[in-house]
Amino acid sequence: MIGRLNHVAIAVPDLAAATANYRDGLGAKVSAPQDLPEHGVTVVFVELPNTKIELLHPLGANSPIAAFLEKNPAGGMHHVCFDVDDIIKARDHLKAAGKRVLGDGEPKIGAHNKPVLFLHPKDFSGTLVEIEQA
């Protein structure tokens, strides 16, 4: 069921500084910032040969990333994302296995314009997991 690692998401308190660190410090190719109001975040993707790093910054006071940064002011790893071939089939399999899907259980469109779901961190060794339809 699980596919390749799509990205690792890092919450950052200063998106411009984090972007510069990857672009200027490490020589990485980075995307332009993209606002995702439905998720309450602004994202920048750092392109790597085998995956991506997603830099997350709060978009608005009610952003889940704002709450994360209150607890982790310097930022830090927020979630990992894996590709799946069929998100509905994956969701149903996970739920049948007793895993908790966050929200209403219906996929939302993510930063790559593909359906995504988040899985409860308590079901995955304390790590928030995102699945994205490949």
Nutshell version of this structure?
The protein is α+β, with helices and mostly antiparallel strands and 134 residues long.
Name a few traits of the molecule.
alpha+beta; 2,3-Dihydroxybiphenyl 1,2-Dioxygenase, domain 1; nine-stranded mixed beta sheet; 9 strands
Poorly predicted residue ranges: none
Number of domains: 1
Q: What does the main sheet amount to?
A: 9 strands, mixed
Ends distance: 11 Å
Kindly provide the radius of gyration, computed on alpha-carbon positions and rounded to a whole number of angstroms: 15 Å
Instruction: Provide the CATH superfamily.
Output: 2,3-Dihydroxybiphenyl 1,2-Dioxygenase, domain 1
CATH topology: 2,3-Dihydroxybiphenyl 1,2-Dioxygenase, domain 1
Strand percent estimate: 35-45%
Percent helix, as a range, is: 10-25%
SS summary, helix count: 3
Architecture, according to CATH? Roll
Q: Let me know the number of strands.
A: 9
Give the helices and strands as they follow along the chain.
EHEEEEHEHEEE
Strand-pairing-aware structural class: alpha+beta
Backbone shape: globular
Helices and strands in order:
Elements (H helix, E strand, L loop, with lengths): L1 E10 L3 H11 L3 E2 L3 E3 L4 E7 L4 E7 L5 H8 L4 E9 L2 H10 L11 E2 L5 E5 L9 E5 L1
Parallel strand pairs: 1-5, 6-9
Antiparallel strand pairs: 1-6, 2-4, 3-4, 4-5, 7-8, 8-9
